[in-house]
Specification:
Shape of chain B: globular
Order of helices and strands of chain B: HEEEHHEHEHEEHEHEEHEEHHEEHEEHEH
Number of helices of chain A: 6
Oligomer: heterodimer
CATH topology of the largest domain in chain B: Aspartate Aminotransferase, domain 2
Strand order of the largest sheet of chain B: 4-10-9-8-7-5-6
CATH class of the largest domain in chain B: Alpha Beta
Radius of gyration of chain A: 16 Å
Structural class of chain A: alpha+beta
Strand content of chain A: 15-25%
Number of domains of chain A: 1
Largest sheet of chain B: 7 strands, mixed
Bound molecules: pyridoxal-5'-phosphate
CATH class of chain A: Alpha Beta
Radius of gyration of chain B: 22 Å
Strand order of the largest sheet of chain A: 1-2-3
CATH topology of chain A: Sufe protein. Chain: A
Chain lengths: 152, 418
């Protein structure tokens, strides 16, 4: 491999595992069970065994509390932690919008406003690693289900 | 074989010559030489097997068993010759006992439907192990649920071998079937199939051995193993995808109703009904996978020429070296038996607190292909207290240098996540 190619490899790996992702993996936020969740949903990635359970408490139309538990790779777990941080205290409608924007970013859709995603943009490097995209979106699909159950 | 070109790791095989037969091993992945260590999932294919496929399609492609023309006769002869080769390779007393399926999974399902539905009833017991691949688990769970039968699992010991205790106490009054892997795809454990089957036989318990990880890697004589059913896949032993084998004792096949109905499997058909073809065609409904079965015959020729004792010896050598090197890294947990002679060429491990997926991704970028995850053995992973492992699995073309590349990749992963 030329040194040019080698640098590109390393750059892509650095993009995948940005510092902020590793930081959330090592120091998860909002991790733990809630005492009285409005809904709790378990998400599984059957291919690799990643597990994330998302719990929410609704406060009117707002997401009062969010917590998650789970085990899996750095991408699945840091995505859950970053998600929890991003949606905590937001309205349910805003949470849904963020879920839509995030999954659109992972699909590689055009026209996503990177500023709207804030820190979450760091997970865009996962797109270069197609088998890992499901790891990144697991928590988000799980949150969508939990919100649906909580609002039902 | 030229002694001087032999890979230094192997006293059993001329690995350099073997590598020359596998075109894919010349390719690069992300600018690095491919190091393929995912052989338990599927093996690579030698030129001889690829050529057999091309030869069939270019020169005698025709449907078999029913053509009155030259091409059909040639194709039929080649297809049936492959069956003879398989029968010889596994020591089957008769090629009538060799049924071609799509893969191991279909072979097991054939038994679960054609034998299981007729022989397992309410209150009966099926014995499996905690180390089943899902393909030797789900068909039995489905059968048990449908019939009201129960499943008991032989537990595994911390070293990854089966907790067999007193063999004669293993079977109960209502045990109908024992099904288990010959070699575990997750732990590498070689199970004492012959002893267990012998005990089952004494009790009148029917047996099925999942040989998907055994037949490709060591000499297997199905008559010596003694099981009623024995299943494996061509694609894990140099052959094409889309071909599996079910070996079954003749008496059982004769009693069993067909699994699938259609062409090829019938003798006489009227509007009122049909009678079944002879063995083994009774269980091969429809046009089979002619090309791939014929090419599988070439894969068997290739392994026969190497000698399965030598294949096994080579794998023990590479596995021994890999385990030594892995133990040399701080903080590696190895799963399965410690002694390489008790395991196939599969090494499952975890590295510190790194998740196997993250390890797999970094290794991949170093050109090293391994497996990360539960390896289709989710209940086993739960027994081990992990969500998954990283797994390197070896075959005839793997070298000591490739084990070194694995170790270098692991060190890079550790540095990356430090
Ligand atoms: C032990 C074992 N059994 C069964 C299977 C299933 O094989 P196939 O996918 O070819 O049906 C495999 C391979 O993945 C295996 O390793």
């Amino acid at each position: 491999m030329s040194s040019e190619e080698f640098r590109q490899q390393e750059a892509e790996l650095d993009e995948l595992y940005r510092d902020i992702i590793i930081d959330h993996y090592r120091h998860p936020r909002h991790k733990g069970r809630l005492t009285a969740p409005s809904a709790s949903h378990e998400g599984l990635n059957p291919l690799c065994g990643d597990e994330v359970t998302v719990e929410v408490v609704l406060d009117g139309t707002d997401l009062g509390e969010i917590g998650y538990t789970g085990s899996g790779c750095s991408i699945s777990q840091s995505s859950a932690s970053m998600m929890a941080e991003a949606v905590a205290g937001k309205s349910v409608a805003e949470a849904h919008r963020l879920i839509a924007d995030f999954t659109a970013m992972m699909r590689g859709d055009e026209g996503i406003d990177p500023d709207a995603l804030g820190d979450l943009e760091a997970l865009s490097g996962v797109r270069k690693f197609p088998v890992r995209i499901k790891c990144a979106t697991l928590a988000w699909h799980t949150l969508a289900q939990a919100l649906k159950e909580a609002s039902a | 074989m030229r002694q001087d070109t032999r890979d230094k790791v192997s006293s059993a095989l001329d690995v350099n010559a073997i590598r020359g037969d596998f075109p894919i091993l010349e390719r690069e992945v992300y600018g690095k030489r491919l190091v393929y260590l995912d052989n338990a999932a599927t093996s690579q294919k030698p030129r001889q097997v690829i050529d057999a496929l091309v030869r069939y399609y270019e020169s005698y492609n025709a449907n078999i068993h029913r053509a009155v023309h030259a091409l059909g006769e040639e194709a039929t002869a080649a297809y049936e010759e492959a069956r003879e080769k398989v029968a010889r390779f596994i020591g089957a007393a008769s090629s009538e006992s060799v049924i071609f399926t799509r893969n191991t999974t279909e072979a097991i399902n054939l038994v679960a439907y054609a034998w299981g539905r007729a022989n397992v009833g309410e209150g009966d017991e099926i014995i499996l192990t905690q180390m089943e691949h899902h393909s030797n688990l789900i068909p039995w769970q489905q059968l048990a649920a449908e019939k009201g039968a129960t499943i008991r699992y032989i537990e595994i010991k911390p070293n990854g071998t089966l907790e067999l205790g007193n063999l004669s106490a293993l079977f109960g009054e209502h045990t109908k079937l024992l099904a288990m892997p010959h070699v575990s795809n997750s732990l590498g454990t070689i199970n004492p199939a012959e002893e267990i089957v012998a005990e089952a036989r004494k009790r009148g318990v029917t047996t099925l051995i999942d040989g998907a990880q055994a037949v490709p890697h060591m000499p297997v004589d199905v008559e010596a193993v003694g099981a009623d059913f024995y299943a494996f896949s061509a694609h894990k032993m140099l052959g094409p995808t889309g071909v599996g084998v079910l070996y079954a004792r003749r008496e059982l096949l004769e009693e069993m109703a067909p699994f699938l109905g259609g062409g090829e499997m019938i003798r006489k058909v009227t509007f009122e009904g049909a009678t079944w073809n002879d063995l083994p065609w009774k269980f091969e409904a429809g046009t089979p996978n002619i090309a791939d079965v014929i090419a599988f015959g070439s894969a068997i020729d290739y392994l026969d020429a190497l000698g399965m004792d030598n294949v096994r010896r080579h794998e023990v050598e590479v596995t021994t070296y890999a385990m030594e090197r892995l133990r040399g890294l701080d903080d590696v947990t190895l799963y399965g038996p410690d002694e390489p002679d008790q395991r196939g060429g599969v090494v499952s491990f975890n590295y510190g607190d790194l998740h196997p997926h993250d390890v797999g991704t970094i290794l991949d970028r170093h050109g090293v292909a391994i497996r990360a995850g539960h390896h289709c053995t989710q209940p086993l992973m739960r027994c081990l207290g992990v969500t998954g492992t990283a797994r390197a699995s070896f075959y005839i073309y793997n070298t000591r240098d490739e084990v070194d590349a694995l170790i270098e990749g692991l060190k890079a992963a550790r540095d990356f996540f430090k």
